[in-house]
Write a structure and sequence with these properties.
Elements: E1 2-3, H1 4-10, E2 15-17, E3 23-24, E4 26-28, E5 38-41, H2 54-59, E6 64-67, E7 77-79, H3 83-94, E8 103-108, H4 113-126, E9 131-134, E10 139-141, E11 144-146, H5 155-167, E12 172-176, H6 179-183, E13 194-197, H7 205-208, H8 211-223, E14 233-237, H9 243-249, E15 254-257, E16 268-269, E17 274-276, E18 279-286, E19 289-295, H10 300-315, H11 320-327, E20 338-340, E21 347-351, H12 356-366, E22 374-378, H13 388-399, E23 402-405, H14 415-428, E24 432-433, E25 444-447, H15 451-461, E26 467-471, E27 478-481, E28 484-487, H16 490-506
Parallel strand pairs: 4-5, 5-6, 6-7, 8-12, 8-13, 9-12, 13-14, 14-15, 21-26, 22-23, 22-26, 23-25, 24-25
Antiparallel strand pairs: 1-3, 2-7, 9-10, 10-11, 16-18, 17-18, 18-19, 20-21, 27-28
């Protein structure tokens, strides 16, 4: 527990009006989460002004208010010019500055964040540096799992979980840092030992409006959340053109990675790697010399993820021997090119790819590993960036032999309207709509609204030499139709379809 006086002394962004001896036990910007002794942060939201909920917060036991204006209340006020800017530092102070006692790794980019944070966890844990993970799938340390409502949650949640992880024995945390989280100040209060960049491709333009705004959001990780005082380092994937801007803007040392053997990057393959269905096996150049990298992860995009993770480990002063040994043991990340076993049948993979670039990457990884046809079952979410829908259709049409466009979290939009936009991209890229399923057709697409039916059809049509990619949902175990969330797991549905086909073969 901290006093308001201690918090006000540590956080330069706030001025205290009231009793400095007031003890606080927590902080939240959600009035429904206020408990006795909490600070209630008044945030002006897109839909409502948090000031409306001050009476409810006080009734629930709020001991103080954090706001950008005065309020006629009987509890102390922490006043600031920008509540979102101050919320993170206040939360960090309130919970005892847990991040200062741990090694923090932040990973940002459109794709690859989840895989890299899980790889970093494997590296650090292998050298007795117990590591927590916070990201899209879950927030996790040891046997404890916190439900992940957002890739990057609100600042009080981040700081509370960091404290809990620290108290449970974590000495490091690997975090996915989303563009939403950066823009909304959720990472304020965190200074990272290593900040890493993967790539910047179209996504979230319903929130950022332009790619320039999206890039500026990502840039904050490398300008506001690193420090020479902490000896921070930055890792960048120079295969992406945005890396040059990051390297120019950041004030801390940079380590570069690339999948191009001729790039001159600090971490790169010695020669063009050989990719196989059982993983990646190649020699890589590192600051410690040439080492052998073996991983069960599949595809060029995962080589990039592995190189970024290796560079992060190196920046944390872990030996390359320990790094490569740890990377060899991480067999899968949930919903990231996760294999669904089909004995005697086609290769089936489930992946979270839900952007044009992610689909290009994962299909590009599977294409050279597929002797027969490459099927792709995919869709686009509703109430999200509509501009990427035809682009996703085109990406699949150009790289898969058979595309099956289907529903994927339509939310409050008409799912047929979403598929109309996807179909436009499929047609423009030269794919033709198939009148009926065909066991031999290439360069065609089907439109099947029911996702279960679409997955079952793809697995039913595929032959043993074929590959089926089920894209878009990955680890998610739900569908959102309207405002209702129902259980739906692509991996479970694929296993059911495999059982049906296995039964047919035996009968």
């Amino acid at each position: 527990m901290r006093t308001l006086g201690e918090i006000a002394k540590e956080v330069r962004e706030v001025t205290l009006h009231g009793d400095p001896a007031t003890i606080v036990t927590g902080i939240t910007n959600d009035s429904r989460q206020v408990r006795k002794g909490f600070i209630y942060a008044v945030v002006r939201g897109a839909k409502a002004d948090g000031a409306v909920f001050i009476p409810a917060a006080l009734e629930a036991g709020a001991a103080a208010i954090l706001s950008d204006r005065p309020h006629d209340v009987a509890v102390p006020l922490l006043q600031t010019d920008d509540v979102r800017d101050a919320l993170g530092p206040v939360a960090a102070s309130c919970f005892g500055n847990p991040g200062a006692a741990m090694r923090l790794v932040g990973v940002t980019g459109t794709n690859g964040k989840t895989t890299i944070t899980w790889l970093v966890e494997s590296i650090l844990s292998s050298v007795e540096m117990p590591c927590g993970v916070m990201g899209t799938i879950e927030y996790r340390f040891g046997n404890r799992v916190w439900s992940a409502s957002h890739t990057t949650p609100e600042a009080p949640v981040i700081q509370s979980i960091l404290r809990d992880m620290r108290d449970a024995g974590a000495v490091a945390v690997a975090m996915e840092t989303s563009s939403h989280g950066l823009v909304l100040g959720r990472l304020r209060g965190c200074v990272f030992d290593v900040a890493a960049f993967t790539n910047l491709t179209q996504d979230h333009l319903d929130f950022h409006a332009t790619m320039e705004e999206y890039g500026a959001a990502k840039m904050q990780l490398f300008t506001r959340h690193v420090s020479s005082d902490r000896h921070s380092k930055v890792v960048v994937n120079i295969d992406d053109s945005f890396a040059a801007q990051i390297m120019s803007a950041t004030a801390v040392p940079v380590c570069t990675v690339s999948c191009d053997p001729d790039s001159g990057a600090d971490f790169r393959p010695c020669a063009e790697p050989g990719y196989a269905i059982d993983g990646i096996h190649t020699d890589i150049v590192t600051p410690a010399g040439i080492v052998c990298l073996d991983s069960p992860l599949v595809g060029r995009h995962n080589l990039n993820n592995l190189l970024v993770a290796a560079a992060i480990g190196w920046c944390l002063e872990i030996s390359m021997e320990a790094i490569t040994a740890a990377l060899a043991t991480r067999s899968t990340v949930p919903g990231r090119l996760e294999r669904v076993v089909y004995p005697g049948g086609c290769a089936v993979f489930v992946d979270y790819a839900h952007t044009p670039d992610a689909l290009e990457r994962v299909l590009g990884a599977l294409r050279p590993l597929t002797a027969g046809r490459l099927f792709c079952v995919f869709g686009c979410g509703g109430d999200r960036d509509a501009g990427k829908r035809p682009l996703m259709g085109a990406a699949v049409a150009e790289r898969a032999d058979v595309a099956i466009a289907t529903s994927d979290n339509p939310r409050t939009e008409d799912p047929d309207r979403i598929l109309d936009m996807v179909e436009e991209g499929l047609r423009q890229a030269g794919a033709r709509r198939l009148a009926e399923p065909d066991a031999a057709t290439r360069n065609g697409y089907l439109r099947i609204l029911d996702r279960r039916d679409a997955i079952g059809l793809a697995i039913g049509l595929a032959k043993p030499e074929d590959t089926v990619l089920i894209a878009g949902k990955g680890h998610e175990d739900y569908l959102i139709i309207g405002t209702q969330k129902t259980h739906f797991d692509d991996r479970e549905v694929a296993r059911d379809a495999i059982l049906v086909q296995s039964g047919k073969r035996m009968s």
